[in-house]
Amino acid sequence: MITAVIDAGQHYCQAVSDLWQWDYGQTLRIQGVKLPAAVEVQFSTTERIGETVTRIGVTQEGVTEVPIPDTLLEGGETTQDYTIYAFVYIENGDSGKTEYRVSMKVRARPKPEAHATPEEGELFRQAIVAVAESADRAESARKSAETSADEAKTSKENAETAAKVAEAFKTEAETARSEAVRAATGSTDAKDSAEKSRAAAEKAKQDAEAAKAAADADKEAAEAAQAKAEAAQKAAENAETEAKKAQTATETAKTAVETARSEAETAKNDAVQAKEAAEKAKSGTAADREVAEAASKAAQVSAISAEKSAERAETAKEEIQESADQIQKNTEDIAGLEETVSTAGISVTEAGTGIVVPECTGGKLQGLKMYGKSEQVQYSGKNLFNVSDTTNNILTKNGIKINEVDQQNGIIKAEFSQPYQQLGVMINSSANTTYTLSFKQKNSKNDEIEVRSYYVKNDVMGDSIKQVVISSEEASFTFTVLNDSYIVVFFRPKGNYSSSDTNVCEFTNIQLERNASSTDFEPYVGGKPSPSPDYPQEIKYVENPNLMIHTKNIVKDVYVIETTTQYSSALLIDADIQGDTEYMLSFIAPEGLRVYVNENLCSYKLIKGTGKIQSVPIKTIKTISKDNVNQFNTNRQKWMLLKIDKDNTVKSKFDKIQLEKGNVATTYESYGCKILTLPYQLNAIPVSSDGNYTDEEGQQWVCDEIDFERGMYIQRVGTKVGIDGFQKTNSANSDMSLRIVCNTNDIEKVKFTPIICNKLRWEKKSSYTEEGTYISTSEADIGRVCVRVEGIKTMEEYQEILADMQYFYILATPIETPLTAEEINDYKSLYTYDGTTIIDNDAGCYMEATVPQDTKYYIDSKIAGLSAAIVASASEAE
Fold it and tell me: To pair with 670 at 20 to 30 A between CA atoms, which of 387, 490, 510, 630?
């Protein structure tokens, strides 16, 4: 028996355990989805190519069981591990549809001597008989239900007012009984689970003992694994005991319910008899006094009987509640024991923005933390060339058509249609200062580019400073200014143009700086450091991140186009891919097929099919987008990955398609993914020390955090908007701008505690008289935030320019907020996959995760690491 659990809303799943080659008589059990009483299941060893073998599955009580064809378990006598796919095919008479796919891994082994299996036809006939029996049982259940409904209706009509209280209790008792029966069912399931867990624990124990004997280099880890396995086995035995207790409690509850029902019926009958007698007495004459007295006595007896019945019913109710409480406690205890079984064995802790753990065992996560992240670009203000201001100066620009200006990338696209047109800027320069103008260029005429600089006097171009002619695509022009003066710096293509003979030019990364050589480009931000009130910089933080646990194969779905048409798409994939990233693509394609990697999405590469599994390293280009029609097919909602080569003659087909991060090919696994959306904001501030995590570049951060194991959202970073609470601290005069401060109670009381602000740069300012534009914190540990903007002298001006100022700061005391019960349950439902498991998130957050790993793999890895260290040490000694 092999089990597959299909999660709600999913259509693909991996069986929870493996099969062995040459097994026979194996059954696939499908849980988690509602299937017909008889359902067609089609089996194959290939995912997309070839034919399937059909078997009929039988569904009882929400669980579908179907025999696995023995021929597929023989695997064509292959010597390699392979996969059996089960396609659940549902027909309604008018149409048929594949609803689900289950993958089952088959491990290869030697062929047994004199191997024989039951006849396939016999298995099919057995399935038909089982379906018929199931249908008969369903019909019997339907008739029984109808009979029960009629009886219930009759009882309701005959009920009298005197029996309402007893009837109400009867309903309550029935409900309790149903709950008890359901609890018994749950207990039985728990017992089954415990049996399976005990078997798994026994295997884990054997693995641990073997590892202990073989791994002297990691003896401690092996002993720990064995101890955990033994504890798990004991836990499984305890779970079985608790299940039996729960079943006993359920039987007790059932007996109490039956007793209560009997007493209630007696009370009701007595009350009816009393009522009839009373009616007779009421309508009689004096001669009927004896009858009246008899009725009175009967009524008294009935009342006493009803009172005793009520007392017994109340006692039964209490006993039922005690049984229900015991059932609940046993259920919780069993759940705890199952948790112990699930986490038994070796666990490893890994960290990073994307965590890859090989050889996982399919167990629960045993710890997970996600840390906040904040990003903000800051600029020095070195670039003096404002590409948006090239037409507001004394240069000759008539006839220049500006097609595009991009401030962020220093781009001007212009069309020149007259001779001697000039494109440049005018700045106020300093004496004895060297400047460098740099840019990249290309033009439709491939003409040389002339670059010049001049002094400016009385808004007229004066003496020349320097001029050069450049023919290369990258230009660098350095000159020195001797006097304090306005200067102009410009460039132009060297040619005579007209309206009918224009030169279309593109200049990028244009930068003018005070330096003797060109440096890396940064955008123009007013010639002053940014962020600033005039050039704010957004603070990017994490909000509502998605946590993802998935297999190494990130291909969710594919669309294969069987074609030989040159340059047309052949393979489209649905996958979460990023730009400028290395991947390993693996697949099976027909021998002789010639395709190439879409050059609009990845680096070009020609691929020739081999008819066998093959792997090709690919790398996406820097910028990819679903809005790019050359990269993404919006109709299919998939990336266009492979195209048909011009020399191809073979129709395209693909199977076992796998895309994984990195440049190492591994064995094929089908796609699987679990996603958890977290409704939190996670901020971070860089610090020089005492951070709660350190990134790959060695930078420490104080950041918000979600600790799933503790069930806590920990906020370490506070945020504020505007200048509410700020007060002025000095009277502005003609020489000084106004300085304003805010005493913040919840800010970290540390000297110069760091801040991130969207409109001001954080600087360490220890003097009240230091001029500049900045946000700072007090040089004393008093929790004060200070702001100064050069040239601003009133609070009204500050209110105007800093109304939308946003700043992040470190909290004096972290704020802990418990996760919701739903969020904790969602976390506890997360499991690793058998084999490689990847833990990732869509915000690039740093994470730490503790997950169960195969004991043998763990020990072997430790031994291999120790051996490598010994070899390296010996080499160094030589």
Answer: 630
